[in-house]
Amino acid sequence: MSMTLPRKVRMVEVGPRDGLQNEKAVVPTAVKIALIERLADSGLTVVESGSFVSPKWVPQMADTEEILAVIRRKPGVVYPVLVPNMKGMEAAEAATGVEEIAVFAAASESFSRRNINCSIEESVARFQPVAERAEKLRWRVRGYISCVIDCPYEGAIAPAAVASVAEKLLAMGCYEISLGDTIGTGTPARAQAMIEAVAAKVPRDRIAVHYHDTYGQAVANILASLELGVAVVDSSVAGLGGCPYAKGATGNVASEDVLYLLNGLGIETGVDLDKLASAGRFISGALGRAPAAGVAQALAARA
What we know:
CATH architecture: Alpha-Beta Barrel
Largest sheet: 6 strands, parallel
Low-confidence stretches: none
Strand content: 5-15%
Shape: globular
Order of helices and strands: EHHEEHEHEHHEEEHEHEHEHHH
Number of domains: 1
CATH topology: TIM Barrel
Mean pLDDT: 93
CATH class: Alpha Beta
Strand order of the largest sheet: 3-4-5-6-9-10
Radius of gyration: 18 Å
Structural class: alpha/beta
């Protein structure tokens, strides 16, 4: 087990997609565009900007094509979109400026069937033609895995099950696998056991982590992951998002809290905390609530 922390960490901002997709009230397109641009201006190099899913199921993402056509793109910044199937892939091809897509599977059979109405094997097979098409277009494909610690229906998920799905996504062509603690029940020891199992099948430098903060353990889990050499962390500005499958889930770990941790460890990110917190205050104001980030609240109180 390596306890050497990475010198540099890439923060993957998921707020404009994974965060806003759970909002009940429709967020105006102009607000989403302004948020994405502010996040890119903070120094983030990956800003998830939408998804090509059916607007019937995720109405908040219905304006993804419009957003991609209008956003001011900053050199060196990637604006990935989620693609659930070939229909979504066709929509992504018709959009402006797509360079990277994301696909998603679950480590839990029950979650997979209830969330996307198919087995894990079927979900991976569904993404195969998507990955093949992306390869022809020279687009990068990122893979997400849900329920890597616990499932709301099955309980604890075996680390070996997570590793099996990760290996399949890697073989399919995903350049990186993001391991998601969807209901936020993970603890550092369990997170490390899961990562070690995955690292036996997937190169460590192709592993990312995506923690929810339901039980207040996300920052601790991130530190535990860094100790094992993981150098890519997903987060959501102002803690946007939540999990509809877990009562009381507080959503993704806040980007401001993650950056404060990384800054305190002397780890390079290229992200400016004040600008990031400003973006968090902007979207929180638009949503009519305070940022769900301890660091953001502390900075606001100090100002």
